[in-house]
TrEMBL record:
Keywords: Cell membrane, Membrane, Transmembrane, Transmembrane helix, Transport. It comes from Nocardioides marmotae. Pfam families: TauE. This is Probable membrane transporter protein. Its main location: membrane.
Length: 260
């Protein structure tokens, strides 16, 4: 396909900057970046869009993960296995990315988002502080199940991965929102890497566009991570509810045919 114009690149860069910020705080940057790529690159194939989106997100999660790691110091006994299985799950998901239609995911994702959003709203104390529900092997086992399932989803489609990681770590394992965001960014970095390990050898990445949105996503990720760390779990919780609400509106509209 032809290279996008400078105007299109600038608009994609702005979308990626915003997506990087949102993704670093609570996940959900794909709600912004992926639709922007679909509109800005009408001649690209679905796999090229997914692969280029992954490159941009990989850049953003790299810097936000490093920022969270330095400032929050999450427990490596959980996040390292979580990252490992998330990478494997994402690679497997990327293998089927071109074979599973988006329409197959959307109704399921919509129901999950509605349940997640309602659960967080109805439990104001959820995620205010870390109070782990399990320990030892049960804690690690559940974390690994979360990693491989959400990792597979990220490789196959992607938008909302960070938000799903955050909710799973808060709702299932009992982490506070800030610590959950730190672990979610590390796991999301691994899922982006897992998908790229497949997409890059296939030649699916549009490098010019990908590097531009990657640079902008990186800046947004840095700003988002610093903001989340500075403002704490309450800020992350409010941001989480807003992002999930936006997802419900966007995906719900697509399922009902309102945006077509």
């Amino acid at each position: 396909m032809e290279d996008p114009t400078l105007t299109v690149l600038a608009l994609l860069g702005l979308a990626a900057l915003t997506a990087g910020f949102v993704d670093a705080v609570v996940g959900g940057g794909g709600l912004i970046q992926l639709p922007a790529l679909l509109v800005g690159l009408p001649g690209a194939s679905p796999v090229e869009i997914l692969a280029t989106n992954k490159l941009g997100s990989f850049c953003g999660t790299t810097v936000s993960s490093a920022t969270y790691f330095r400032r929050v110091r999450p427990d490596p006994r959980t996040f390292l296995p979580l990252m490992g299985v998330a990478l494997v799950g994402s690679f497997a998901g990327a293998l089927v990315a071109s074979q599973v239609p988006r329409e197959a995911f959307e109704p399921i994702v919509l129901v999950v988002l509605v349940v997640v959003g309602a659960y967080v709203l109805l439990k104001p104390s959820l995620g205010a502080a870390t109070a782990l529900r399990f320990s030892g092997g049960r804690h690690l086992g559940l974390a690994m199940v979360v990693g491989v399932v959400i990792g597979f989803y990220d490789g196959a489609l992607g938008p909302g991965t960070g938000s799903f990681f955050v909710f799973a770590l808060v709702g299932l394992l009992g982490y506070g929102f800030l610590e959950a965001s730190a672990k979610a960014r590390l796991a999301n970095w691994a899922t982006n890497l897992g998908a790229l390990l497949l997409f890059v050898p296939q030649g699916a990445v549009l490098w010019k566009t990908g590097l531009v949105i990657g640079a902008c996503n990186l800046v947004g990720g840095y700003l988002g991570a610093r903001t989340a760390v500075a403002r704490g779990s309450r800020f992350v919780r409010v941001f989480f509810v807003l992002v999930v609400t936006a997802f419900v509106v966007r995906i719900g509209g697509e399922v009902l045919g309102l945006w077509s």
